[in-house]
Design a protein that fits this description.
about 40% helix, 9 helices, Rossmann fold
Amino acid sequence: MKTCCTTPINNKFDLARAKEELANYLAHGPKKNTLPLLKAVASVELSGATALDIGGGVGAVLFQLLESGASKAESVDISEAYCAVLQDELNKRQLHSQVRIWNGDFLCLKDSIPRRDIVTLDKVICCYENFEDLVLQSLAKANKWYAYTIPRDVWWVKLAHFLKEYRVRNRKECFRSFIHPVHAIESLIEQQGFRKHWQGTKAQWLYTLYQRT
């Protein structure tokens, strides 16, 4: 993803897709590949905490943060449609006063977004080719906890990803995803004063929760 380039995202994650994803969430709960991250977030003390969910989508992680005790939250998403659908759902739940939605690329908005106790990125780091900047800038917003979901850096996941990206390139789609070296991401995080609190895997995904030391 090129920083501040919103057109490919808005084309791919449009209103129809956002409404369908919210309907599925309301009917069946969070996606299975999001559940491990939600369990990790729910396992720590968040009573009265503030939260920042980057790539918030329709709010699956956001709602878990609030249910776990977060008193105030920010949701950032580059898709206008997803932000609109989430805002409608927040209004229905009368949570609009607790949550602020930011529409745009986090790296473009970062100077305006406040620091929060916990920062979450569910399948977001893999959307950025320049993952180092995203990791460092999002870490700077985390007072205590930092949690993410990324693709596992193993051969069979890389092979499946290569085949998927090959089809995307043939269709000339602008949206791309990336598998970044896990050791490089973890090294960046640890250099910023965080220690690994929990890590787990499910299928092709790696889930990690860090705590600031």
